[in-house]
Design brief:
Layout lengths: L5 H21 L2 H7 L2 H13 L22 E8 L2 E9 L11 E11 L2 E10 L5 H8 L4 H5 L22 E7 L3 E7 L3 E6 L2 E5 L7 E11 L9 E8 L8 E8 L8 E8 L1 H7 L3
Antiparallel strand pairs: 1-2, 2-3, 3-4, 5-8, 5-10, 6-7, 6-9, 9-12, 10-11
Helix pairs in contact: 1-2
Length: 280
């Protein structure tokens, strides 16, 4: 049974998502902007120009269309402050040729702005490795949602980021940090947070000619030993086919080593680096 008030919340949120989904399918920029949260619009814009892709055309260059909600089992609608979540279970179909949808979890996030609820993002949780959770959700048991922070509205409205400059050189920050949380900031523009991760993210604003600043901080997470190896790197990516990325910056801590709690480093984009990126 839906909680009291859930249905009243569900209707406007589903309407917003349906409008957003159709805007993406139709590649309708005006409609997409009308139903997408301002913070998300700027995040998407900054990421695209940092990858030297067109904005807003790049918004619609997706590997698969966003799924429709038809046929999915509604689980929950929750609001906290100006944030809300909608959760669904079922065979989520991304319309990819040859793919057979399986029963998984879809959590949609929304932000309330002056003109109503706006779409923020979707989190798709593959339950293949969680058969017990899959069975619980199929039976209407919402324990997993209640115990998963990312499935609950936070009440925190993200600020709208400053508009980043278009990248001259595409860059990515890579972090390997088992047992630790690492925060990285590049050129005081691009902020990244990694927790117990092995991930890479695009540097917002890209790299610039001359010196580039890399600030980072490190802290141990609960459950970590404090002895794990750790790596922070920044790569420069070429736009020339078959030219490999350049490792521009690296900070490594060997196993049993002690990382700095915080520090600032630099890397240079000089003529030699540019020649390598151009394949010369």
């Amino acid at each position: 049974m839906a909680a009291p008030g859930a249905e009243a919340l569900r209707v406007p949120l589903e309407t917003t998502y349906g409008q957003w989904q159709q805007a993406v399918v139709r590649k309708d920029v005006t409609s997409w902007q009308a139903v997408t949260a301002k913070s998300r619009q700027m995040e998407v814009r900054n990421r695209l120009v940092s990858e030297k892709r067109a904005y807003p055309a790049g918004v619609f260059e997706l590997p698969a269309p966003p799924p429709a909600l038809k046929g999915l089992k509604f689980l929950e609608a929750k609001q906290k402050g100006q944030t809300a979540k909608l959760s669904y279970f079922g065979k989520i179909d991304f319309g990819m040729e040859g793919a057979v949808p399986t029963e998984n979890l879809l959590v949609l996030s929304f932000i309330q702005e002056n003109t109503g609820w706006k779409y923020d993002r979707a989190d798709y949780i593959n339950l293949a490795a969680l058969p017990a959770v899959r069975g619980e959700l199929a039976a209407g048991n919402l324990r997993y949602l209640e115990e998963t922070p990312d499935a609950q509205p936070s009440g925190v409205v993200p600020p709208v980021a400053a508009q980043a400059p278009a990248a001259k050189y595409i860059a990515k920050v890579y972090v390997f940090c088992p047992g630790r949380e690492v925060q990285v900031q590049v050129n005081k523009i691009s902020r990244h947070k990694f927790a117990n991760a092995k991930e890479a993210e695009v540097v917002i604003g890209g790299a610039v000619d001359g010196p580039n600043e890399v600030q980072y901080s490190v802290k141990k997470l609960d459950g970590g030993t404090g002895k794990e190896a750790m790596t922070i790197r920044v790569y420069l990516l070429s736009e020339v086919q078959d030219v490999k990325p350049i490792k521009a910056f690296e900070y490594q801590v060997p196993e049993n080593g002690v990382p700095k709690a915080a520090d600032t480093g630099y890397f240079q984009v000089d003529a030699a680096a540019v020649n390598k990126l151009m394949g010369r």
